[in-house]
Write a sequence for this structure.
């Protein structure tokens, strides 16, 4: 088979990603400013034109409570880190929100990092036609009932009647995420609901299975992009 070694320009990639409504695509320069974005990101930011985004950073496009986390993540990538399969709850200024898996990596030019490229892919519906869906759903039901308790992957594998390695592989195939990511998703979704109540942040963290308030705050900020206190203030507005 003949190999094809043809580099794709960012403009070409942008055109490829433009028709995909469930994928956000972007290229940023060394100052974290958008250089290329696809149509999905334009729509989710609620802006009429691509030119309204290009040349700007997240600091200019997102609320301060979110942009600080996003810019810190970009700077890690510009320092050489590769981010793969990061489960995030994306919040947008037009009030859209949704779970996604984010991938980011540095862009090199003449041996130096000149920017970054990334995508965030929406988390789709589970593949309920897969032959292992029913047995995996038993493990998910156990997680839903006991997400506030310490859960071992071996216990979930036993419930599903598979090995730990099979459980990991099948979860990614059916749910697109790992069992640990599923547990995080359940806990954060519950925490978001409870942040609309009068319960204290410490009480919410404990109710959602976190060992202490600081562990809860770290995981919430990593997943949602802002601390629980800021999310509560945003929700009340």
């Amino acid at each position: 088979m003949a190999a094809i070694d043809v580099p794709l320009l960012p403009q070409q990639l942008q055109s490829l990603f433009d028709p995909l409504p469930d994928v956000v695509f972007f290229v940023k320069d060394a100052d974290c400013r958008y250089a290329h974005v696809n149509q999905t990101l334009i729509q989710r930011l609620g802006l009429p034109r691509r030119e309204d985004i290009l040349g700007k950073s997240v600091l200019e496009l997102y609320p301060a409570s979110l942009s600080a986390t996003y810019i810190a993540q970009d700077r890690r990538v510009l320092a050489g880190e590769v981010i793969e399969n990061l489960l995030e709850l994306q919040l947008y200024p037009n009030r859209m929100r949704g779970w996604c898996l984010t991938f980011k990596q540095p862009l090199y030019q003449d041996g130096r990092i000149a920017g970054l490229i990334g995508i965030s892919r929406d988390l789709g519906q589970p593949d309920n036609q897969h032959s292992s869906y029913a047995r995996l759903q038993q493990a998910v039901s156990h997680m839903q009932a006991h997400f506030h308790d310490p859960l071992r992957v071996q216990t979930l594998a036993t419930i599903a009647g598979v090995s730990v390695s099979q459980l990991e592989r099948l979860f990614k195939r059916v749910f697109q995420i790992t069992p640990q990511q599923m547990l995080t998703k359940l806990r954060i979704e519950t925490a978001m609901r409870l942040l609309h109540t009068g319960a204290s942040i410490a009480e919410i963290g404990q109710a959602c299975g976190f060992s202490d308030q600081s562990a809860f705050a770290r995981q919430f900020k990593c997943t949602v992009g802002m601390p629980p206190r800021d999310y509560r203030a945003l929700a009340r507005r």
Remarks:
- The mean pLDDT is 92.
- Strands lie at 23-29, 34-37, 83-91, 97-109, 112-122.
- Residues 157 and 163 are 6 Å apart (CA to CA).
